[in-house]
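Quick one - first record:
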Amino acid sequence: MSDPDDTDVLGLRAFEDLKNTVQKSNKAYSDVAGKLPALAKQLEALDTKSTKAAQRVEDAAQAVTSYIKTDRRTLLISCGFGAIALVFCAGFLGDIKGSRTGYAQGFAEGQQEAKKRDALAEWAVSSPSGHMAYEMDRAGQIQAFGMCKIEGYKIRTDQKGTWCVSVSGNGLMWPVAPPDLHQ
């Protein structure tokens, strides 16, 4: 079968491998055991630092909590007054803006009216028709002329508008405003 020497050689080889493995394990264990005190000191230092940091966080949280608890009334009053102040400021600014808008609109309307009056005055002063209208107004005839209340004339309305026409049909004819607009 097998040679007894071969079995002994295989057993010796296995025993030698086991011995080498044990030696390597002992060396690794010795290395780790030598480093353990230093690692333990580092862990203790980190534990102390994290304990101090946790204590500071806890102190800060308690300070904030106590501030919120004790000054809640003051905080609410301050916020309330701040909100009231904002409302008054917004109202004041809105009033100023509204006043300025109203002023600007009134000013623009006044300017337009002044321009119309200026143009009318310019017409009355610089044209022969304007002079004649002025003289008719001084005599009290301009209103009668404008409303077609002149003897020998009557109001006629057609699709083109309202006209002051001669009763005989041979006189002048001019447009007038409808009588209901002057009432």
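second record:
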Amino acid sequence: MAKNRARNYEWATVEYEQGSYDVCVCMVFEQVDEIRPVDSEINIIELMDRKSIEWMYEKAMEEINTNLNAPHFKDMSRMEYLIDEGIEGPVMDDKAA
């Protein structure tokens, strides 16, 4: 089975100090790009200390790597391309591509 390809940015949900946070990791530069409380659009990375950000990065990467290596994870890179290009219509199945 082929390994799934990471996108430029991946999101993971991390539990930290009695809260849940969505962590956006830039896979190109291998660093945290955004940290948001779950269900929030507010990026709080500027309010956090370096140690907390590094801890969240490690936990997010564990989840991301688990998802990328999971057999049930569907590679959405083709769908992402179609959305980015504004192409509408039915998307071909992976077997037909």
